[in-house]
Amino acid sequence: MLEKLENLKTEADNAIAASANAEKLREVEVEFLGRKGKLTEILRELKNLPAEEKGKVGKASNELKIEIEAKIAAKAGELENSRFEKLAGEEWIDPTQPGIAARRGTLHPLTQFIREAEKVFTGMGFTIASGPQIEDDFHNFTALNIPADHPARDAQDTLFLADEEGKLLRTQTSSVQIRWMEERKPPFRIVAPGRVFRKDDFDASHSPMFHQLEGLVVDREISLANMKAVMEEAVKQLIAPEAKFRFRTSYFPFVEPGLEMDMSCTICGGKGCSVCKRTGWIEIVGCGLVHPNVLRNVEIDSAKWSGFAFGFGIDRMVMLRHGIKDLRLLFDNDLRFLRQF
Ligand code: DAH
After folding, report:
1. Is the pLDDT of residue 155 over 80?
2. Do 51 and 9 have their domain in common?
3. Domain span at residue 85?
4. Whether the bond into 187 is cis, omega within 30 of 0
5. How far is the CA of 174 from the centre of ligand 1 (A)?
6. Residue 86 and residue 113 in one domain
7. Which residues contact ligand 1 via a Cβ below 6 A?
8. 265 in a domain, yes or no?
9. Contact call for residues 213 and 149 (beta carbons, < 8 A)
10. In the predicted model, is pLDDT for residue 146 greater than 90?
11. Whose CA is nearest to atom 8 of ligand 1?
C-alpha cells in the first residue's frame, strides 16, 4: 500500500509538472484529489486495512494529500507568473518613448480681441450686452433714426429673411443699443460685440459677415470730451499705446454730431504707406453723440439724459494689430494661419 502511495506521488509530480496551463492543472487536481480521485480512493480503502497498517498508510496518505495540494498551488502561481510574463512580452510598452503630444488649440484672433476689449471696457465700468443676429426693421433701422429712404435699407445691402416677414440679419450691432434701452432706465455704459451681415462680396477687404463692437453711454451731461477720452484709451490699450488720434465729422443717422475717429497708421508710424493709402491715418471707429430722436424712440427724456455711441470694426482692428493683409484669412479656418496666434 505504501508503495502504491509512492507511485501515486511520482505520478502526481509528473502530471503537475506537465500541466501547461491553469485548465490542465485543474484536471490534475480532480484526477488525484477530487471526490473520485486516485488519492481519495486510497483514503476510502483505509478502513479495510488491518489495524497496524491503517495508521501508517493513513498518515502517509494525508501527508501526500497536503504535499500534492501544496505543489498544485505552487504550480498555479508559476503558471500565473508566466502568463503575465508572456503578456508583458506581447503588450510591450516603452516608457521612455516620447508621448503623443496633445495638440493645443488657441483662441481665434477675433475671439482674443473681443475678450481683451471686454476686459478693457469692463475696466472702465462698462457692462457687456448682446442682442439677436436675426433682427427686425425697427431695432436695426427705424428706432435708430434711419430714414425709410436710407440706402442701407435697400435689398442691395441688407440680407432679408425670405421666409420670415420683416426679419433681417442685423447689419450693425447698433441694434443692441435699442434693445438695451427699451428694457432699462439710464444711466448705463455698455459694449456689445457681435456678428453683423451685409450683402457684400468676399474679397481681401469685404465679407458678408463681419464683427463689430458697439458702445453706448447714456448719463447726465455727456459730452464729446467723455467720448474722446474713453475711445482713445480703449484703442491705445487694444492696438497701439503710441497711437495718435484725430476726429473728423461724418454722418450716421443715430448720432449728432457724427464723427469718425482716425488712428495714426501703425504700419508706417504716420509717414504714409499702402495700408493707410499714403495719408498716415487709418479710419477705425464711427461715433458721435446719441441723437435725441433715438432717445425719444426708447422713451428716454433727451432733456435730462445725453450720451455717446461708437462702433468698432473688429475685423479691421485685428488686421491692423497683427499686420494681416487679407480679411479672408480670418474666416478660412486654415490652421497654418490660426496657429500663429
Ligand atoms: N453702425 C455703424 C456702421 O455699421 C457704426 C457706428 C457708427 C456705430 C457710429 C455707432 C456710431 O454707434 O455712433 O457703420
Report:
1. no
2. yes
3. 2-90
4. yes
5. 6
6. no
7. 172, 174, 214, 252, 255, 286-288, 309-311
8. yes
9. no
10. yes
11. 311
